Each structure stands twice: as structure tokens, then as C-alpha cells.
Amino acid sequence: MNSAITGCEHPAPLQRGDGVLSSHSDGQSRKKDGLPRSTSSNHLAYDILDIPPWYICIFLGIQHFLTALGGLVAVPLILAKDLCLQHDPLTQSYLISTIFFVSGICTLLQVLLGVRLPILQGGTFAFVAPSLAMLSLPAWKCPEWTFNASQVNTSSPEFIEEWQKRIRELQGAIMVASCVQMLVGFSGVIGFLMRFIGPLTIAPTISLVALPLFDSAGSNAGSHWGIAAMTIFLIVLFSQYMKNIAVPVLVYGREKKCHTTKFRLFQVFPVLLALCISWLLCFVLTVTSTFPSAPTAYGYLARTDTKGSVLSQAPWFRFPYPGQWGLPTVSLAGVFGIIAGVISSMVESVGDYYACARLVGAPPPPKHAINRGIGIEGLGCLLAGAWGTGNGTTSYSENIGALGITRVGSRSVIVAAGCVLLLMGILGKIGAAFATIPTPVIGGMFLVMFGVITAVGISNLQYVDMNSSRNIFVFGFSIYCGLAIPNWVNKNPERVQTGILQLDQVIQVLLTTGMFVGGFLGFLLDNTIPGSLEERGLLAWTQIQESEESTKASKVYSLPWGIGTKSCTSSRVQCLPFWPRLEHGGKGAGRASQLTLCSQDSSGEHQKGAAETRM
């Protein structure tokens, strides 16, 4: 038996009295006609190993693309001013298309060869601060004439060289820094550090992924609180109150051909439906001139035509390619600054891996999967630098929040999302059209997503004895400092003065990253303040990893196509820190373990001990 999920044969779903098909409740069986498995709020609609029908995968992939759209579009637009591109929307759309295309490649690499969890890859805000710091240096400040739209000729060679030499400098710094991330991942350094990382480190790290973003999410939503509130209301209504309502849909099957069945539409597509309805309402209110047309008026950002210039100027087809802006250049200041962003990105990604595993019903990721995931993210940053996105790539926390809302954890859906990103990167006109989603709609969506991510981080404390004053202090102090220290450093950047510019940039980037501050303090205090393994939650944490690593973990985190289980199983290869381990003494035992995974009792339920994710 090979390691693919298609090797398992499961009984057909059970027919319930209300006419809705229901599958087994443990999250391992297949779906028929694309129907979710259970009405219970504690069960996933699709497990990580499930393969929904292709049409469900496409729509869910588009939903994930829309969820990540705000972050993907925001990064190039934030960098535009310091790249001297504030008056060149066409080049901005090229950067947006490039980051779509590279994000699609990196997503496919991560899902197929990396950590293998359903995590979307995209531009990282951890690289924005060091990038802006580098571009603010005297050598890279934009000339005064580039700030005057009347003096800018976007097609002149002089202007093109002005912005291209800056993005080439960013490319070189990102490519060099990405090599450090690949070394840390593929060498096993990050996996070695995981033995010292427990729930009291993971909880503040994940929580501080979203908590510091309340300001930006609130600012986006505050551009029109009415539209933002409606978006929030629709997402909550669909995902929580209407999740068990089955809608009749027309489907096609091999046996029954074309027929109607019931499908829990609101449970699977709450974000997509809410975005479409809010977007449509904004379009109607824009056409009827209900929203103000003055750029400074309240509610102007709710209009759907505020970014119309990008849509009209973008080409229908454009193929991004490596070195499209020229040969990258490298400077020491830029490399050190981006390395600080790489450190923050790795800390965030490790927290994202654990959060994603909890939401999709997967065991905690083993060391080899974490090593591989961080290494592949470094490879993604190298590709992003080569293509010239002006940014790197990392795991997207927003999409992990979407997993918690939709309860769809299938790996196949993220593969479809990666393909959608590739397509949007090539179809310049369609990709630019998505950039016209009104700001308050994106802000309302982010408020819901960030709330879910924060709750996922706090849920890691269930393994810890929270009656212990030691643990209360560690978690509370880490969270509070993760909010207070970055806030002070952002307001007083001139106080960080060591006399060495590169060191100042590294320190400033690290201290303004809340997840790094909180995670580091949690790591330091948890490993230095005396406490038993049971009190710290490490005993339960280890037991979960050991009990599940040889069963479901071998199926989730192993490489595809039998790599490491049927081929490339020599002892030399097994010594690589990122290579999956053979369980129970080799191939034969691995097959027996996989047979156990697929076994079921006569009632159609899996054996006891199946993993279950509870929110």
C-alpha cells in the first residue's frame, strides 16, 4: 500500500433522515457529492487528508485567495512610495501580479514538499519594516521630482531606472537572507530548538500574530463601519448560525448521473459569500452615488472605483519571470535588516504550523516537518527575490483563521488556491480587478479572522496547569510585553542607538515584532523558572506527539509519491534532519501501520484514539 490517501477504501456515507448525506465523524472518510461530514460544531467539514470534489476545491481555493488578497495587495502598495512608484499605478499592478504568481509557486511547494499542512504562502509584513528602513537611507531616498505627478514620465528611461535600481537592491538582500533561512531549516537547527518550545511559548507567539494587527484591521474597518459591520455580521451568520442549513444543489455522479442533493453551503463558503454580498452592495451604492466622491470624505474608501486606474491600465496577460527588473545588487545594511525579518518570519511560521495543525485535526508537526517547512519557506523567499516581488514569502495567518471559520482543512483546497494564485498572476486584468475590493470589506473580514487566530493561540493553554501562579505569570507577562515593547519602540525609534546602523536596524525590527518579543520571553521564562513537566504542559504535549506521530502523523507529514517510505529509504538519507522517519522499523511495518489507519469497525466508525480538533 502506498502512502497516498487514495490507497484507503472507506464505506459510503450514511444517509440521514433529513436527506443530507453524512460521513464518519473522525475526519478520515471520503465525501460523496462534496458534502460535509457532520453537523457537529466540533467536527471538520473536510479533514486534512480528504479530497473534496474538484468544483468544491476551486471555490474554496478562490475563497482562500480572497482572504489573502488584502495582505498580498497591501505589501506592494506600502512599498510603492519608497520605491518612487506612488504615481505609477501600472508598475504597481505588475508588482501585484508578480507577488500573486510567486505566492502560487511557494504555496504548491509548501503543501507538496514542505510542512504539508494546508497553509497558504504569501508576502510577509516582517520584511516590510527592514525594507522601508533600507530605502530610507540617504543613498536610496527618492528624488524630489518623483513626488510631483506632473514631473513624472512613467515611460522615460530615467524614471524606470530610479525605481528599478531600488527594487534590485531589495531583491539582492532578500535572496541572501533567504539562504540563512534555508540553512536554519534544512540543517535541523529549528527542529533542535523545538525540544525547548512548549505551550507557554507557542500560546503567546500565535496570539501575538493577530493582536498587534488590531490597529490596521480597525483602521480598514473604520473607513466605513456600516459596511464593515455588515461583512462581520454576514460571516458570523453564515459560519455560526446557518452552518447546519442544507441547501439543495444540482450535482453529477457516476451512478445517479445528474440529480439534486443537499449541501451545507453556508458552512463551507461563509467568507466568500460575505465578501461577494458586501462587494455587490458597495458597487450598487457607488453607482447610485450614495458614497461620497471626495477622497477626503468619510466613506470614500467604500467605493468600488477608487482603484479603477489599476484595472484600466493592467494588461490581460503578463508572464512574470526571474530578473525582470535586472540583475539584483547586494548591500550589507539591507542583508542584515532582512535577516531580522527572516527571524521574525520563522518564529511566526512555527506558531502558524501548530495553529494550523490544531484547526485541521492533524497531530502536532514533528521536527522533520518543521525543518522542511522552514527550509521551503527560505526557498520561497529566494524565488520571491529572483522574481522581484520586493518582498519574501511566509505562512499566512489570515488563511489559518479562515480554516477555523469554514472547518475545511483539506490539503487539496490549498493546492487549488495555489493554482488560483498562479492564474491570477498571469491574468493581469483579472488579478487587478480583485484589488478593487473596498477597504472596509477587507477590514471587517480581518477583524473576524484575527479574532479566531488569537483564540487558537490561547487554546494551547489547555495543556498547561493554569492554576499555577508560575504559568499565569509567564503567559501574562509575555503577552503584555509583546504589546507594550513594540508600541514604545515604534513611537521612539531614535532611542535605539548603538552607533552601528545595521545593528540598530536588526534590534529595531526585532523589538517592533510583537510575536518575537512575546515568544522569546515565553521561551526564556518557561525554560528558566523552575516547574515540573506536567505543570508546564510539556508532559501532555509530548504524549500527544508520541501517541499520534506513528499513526496519523506519518500520513500527514510524509513526503508524497512514496518518497521516504517506498523509495529513498537508505540509512544515509534517513539521517537528513528534514527527511521523514520510517516508523516501526522500515517499509513493511510502515505498510501495516497504514492498513491500521484505514481499518474500521462494523458500525463504520474508526477505532478509538482518532484525533479530534475542538475549538
From TrEMBL:
Domain of life: Eukaryota
Keywords: Membrane, Transmembrane, Transmembrane helix, Transport
UniProt membrane topology term: Multi-pass membrane protein
Keyword Cell cycle in annotation: no
Disordered: region residues: 11-38
GO cellular component, one term: plasma membrane
Keyword Transmembrane recorded: yes
Chief location: membrane
Family: Belongs to the nucleobase:cation symporter-2 (NCS2) (TC 2.A.40) family.
Name recorded for this polypeptide: Solute carrier family 23 member 2
The organism of origin for this protein: Rousettus aegyptiacus
